[in-house]
Amino acid sequence: MIKIYSAVFAGIAMFAGTVCFASDIAREVSGDGGDNFFEVSIGLGAGQNNRVKKEDEHNDSYGVGIGLGWEYRWKGFFSEAIQDSYSGLNLGYELWQNDNWRLDLIGMNLHGSVSNDDEILPGMTEEERNDRLVRRDTITLNGGVRATYYWKDNIIQFRLESDYSQNYAGAQSSLLVGRAWQIRNWNIHGLTGLQWNSRKRNEYLWNVSPLEATEKFPEYQASSSLNYSFEVGATYPISEHWLSRSKIVAFTIDDSVSESPLTNNDNVGGVISTSIVYVF
């Protein structure tokens, strides 16, 4: 199984969960970067209740992971793999901007995992079906738009995307509001947000069909969901090119997701992370 969660391909999947897209605008709220820049980060994080998908009987809601992330912008083009974010890998182009607004085209938002052994066939044993259920595809390949509004030290961002892969996993959207405060050399930011997933997306991720159902994972029909997230973080300049970032994130998990037999049945979760960033 190949995992393409949040900022990377290096074991940061435990950060993902349903943490909305709050981390995506944390850098902009804290005032880092510019029109053209490249930064890479490596960080350590710990989470409680943030791993929604249970892999086995002994899976709990705690995890620790190391992750790599980056953000690159050049003449309107951008590539983003934001550490401890749910948004996966983003490739896109800045369509338009002025002093207060920016409109981005998200050409590719890649998130989730791919499995080559998730097909459930008639005649399989309960154990075989259980194994296939927790290893099934969760990959989404999305395209859409992102609109960001800036006013003094405040930021508002709206994002709407739809899956265009052969899975056609429906749509997702988010609305985020953030603010920054400068305290000596520290830049403190706060974010709050909403993330909506369509019924079709949650069916793809969390449904259990009659053919798939087992005693451990009974039949389940998901609906659309609305999750909330809250983040407080701090950025400190170590030197001209090096930064330190830390954050605490809390989030909710809608009943449509938490009641699925494929989850830990938790309605809240959180992540604490710290990272070192190099800005070129």
TrEMBL record:
Instruction: Mention any Pfam family matching this sequence.
Output: MipA
Subcellular localization(s) per the UniProt record: Cell outer membrane
Keywords annotated in UniProt: Cell outer membrane, Membrane, Signal
Annotated signal peptide: 1-22
A cellular component term (GO) from this record? cell outer membrane
Domain of life where this protein originates: Bacteria
Task: Indicate yes or no for the key word Transmembrane helix.
Answer: no
Q: Does the keyword Signal apply?
A: yes
PANTHER family membership: MLTA-INTERACTING PROTEIN-RELATED (PTHR38776:SF1)
Q: Which family does it belong to?
A: Belongs to the MipA/OmpV family.
Q: Indicate what this protein is called per its UniProt record.
A: MipA/OmpV family protein
Q: Which organism is it from?
A: Marinagarivorans cellulosilyticus
